[in-house]
Amino acid sequence: MDILVVGVNYRTAPIELRERVAFRAEHLAQAYAELQQDTGLPEALILSTCNRVEVYAGAPASGDVASRLVSFLRSHGAFLEGEGQDSFYAYEEAQAVRHLFRVASGLDSMVLGEAEILHQVKQAYERAKGHGATGKVLNALFQKALNAGKAVRTHTAIGRGGMSVGTVAIELAQKIFGELRPYTVLLLGAGKVSEMTLKRLIARGASRVRIANRSAERADLLATRYGGERVALDALEDQLVEADIVIASCSVERPLLTGERIQRLMPRRHHRPLCLIDLGVPRNIESSVGQAENIYLFDIDDLQDLVAHHHGQRQQAAGEAQRIIDSKVRHFLAWRQQERGAFIPSASVLAGAR
């Protein structure tokens, strides 16, 4: 059985395409049922984050599995014929293994060494297991990938400072507003991204942080743990009147904030500037919102210029991390050789998977 990954990421597809193929947690049961029906694969795992949507598979050596997985993702995203054709990539065996280990270690993220990705990979694996979608091959692959990610974070400085998309969003807000203390920050969502963002906001001096979430219990937990105030999501418009900065990372089917809603609120705000940073995929905020006067709207793809600065600072650690990954990949492929009698690719083959 071969290991295969097919997907799109922030390098190959803009957010307008990535959000269409993204999977929400509550829809995964149906997605796995459809994936099994469409492809007949004995093992498959869906990894859906703000930076990527990928399907990992343990697939029979024969048959065009990659094209079937691409068709599955295109169908899920309701793509028109020919639309986004060049956005999908596919890797097999050594390349697929190396790719996943880099993903889990934060080396393939928009924010190099980002703090959230290891948790996201672990969560995707646990969900796939819960749906009965993994077996011997993917169980071993993802356990070793998680081990590699932990080793990289333990033995290198790649994750020093807890860099994440939330941290970069805060830096963007600081470039616009300067010191955060006098301003009201509203977090929409209380997941892992919001948790990391809240932690950094408090560390950087924000004193008026409010958290709105569908689960009041989760919002209360974050407010108690890090500081801030839980506010009711059904009072969102009142909160938007008072907020100066909004950082959104909810899991939504439709945008929470529309152009019409923001236009209606601006007179109540006396047209004070409002900075909106949308970290959600799918997006939490309609792109038309950015057309309103005194509105500064940024989505996750807009953060890449700031991200480039941090990449330069982390290149040495990235080299150290890559050496750890190469070693872990070799060990995993050696196990694969014992299991199936395949040969271990040379170092040049591994290098070609970068």
Verbal overview:
The protein is an alpha/beta fold and 354 residues long. It folds into 2 domains: 2-160 and 314-351, 2-Layer Sandwich (Beta Polymerase, domain 2), CATH 3.30.460.30; 165-305, Rossmann fold (3-Layer(aba) Sandwich). It is built from 13 helices and 10 strands. The protein has helices at residues 15-21, 28-39, 65-76, 93-105, 117-130, 136-155, 165-177, 192-203, 216-226, 236-242, 259-265, 304-340, 347-351, and strands spanning 2-9, 43-48, 52-59, 89-92, 184-188, 208-212, 229-231, 245-248, 274-278, 295-299. The strands form 2 sheets. A 6-stranded parallel sheet has the order 7-6-5-8-9-10, with helices on both faces. A 4-stranded antiparallel sheet has the order 2-3-1-4, sandwiched between helices. Helix 4 packs across helix 6 and helix 4 crosses helix 12 (304-340).
Secondary structure: elements and pairs:
Elements: E1 2-9, H1 15-21, H2 28-39, E2 43-48, E3 52-59, H3 65-76, E4 89-92, H4 93-105, H5 117-130, H6 136-155, H7 165-177, E5 184-188, H8 192-203, E6 208-212, H9 216-226, E7 229-231, H10 236-242, E8 245-248, H11 259-265, E9 274-278, E10 295-299, H12 304-340, H13 347-351
Parallel strand pairs: 5-6, 5-8, 6-7, 8-9, 9-10
Antiparallel strand pairs: 1-3, 1-4, 2-3
Helix pairs in contact: 2-3, 4-6, 4-12, 5-6, 6-12, 7-8
